[in-house]
Write a structure and sequence with these properties.
89% helix; 0% strand; mainly alpha; Copper resistance protein D domain-containing protein; transmembrane; single chain
């Protein structure tokens, strides 16, 4: 989850300001980072779902 926060902060404070200067390079990287964040979120949900089905010891 911490990685998702770092990606979101990088998108907001690094990539978005760069889009004003060099949109051709920053926009594809922004899209890629956003997809990566979604993928990590899906993995986190799968892990939490699997852990929720385990019996407590």
């Amino acid at each position: 989850v911490m990685i998702m926060v770092v990606i979101a902060l990088a998108n907001r404070y690094v990539l978005v300001p760069r889009m004003r200067q060099d949109e051709d390079r920053a926009a594809p990287l922004f899209v890629w980072m956003t997809k990566l964040e979604w993928a990590i979120g899906a993995v986190v949900l799968v892990i939490i779902s699997l852990l929720a089905t385990l019996e407590p010891f």
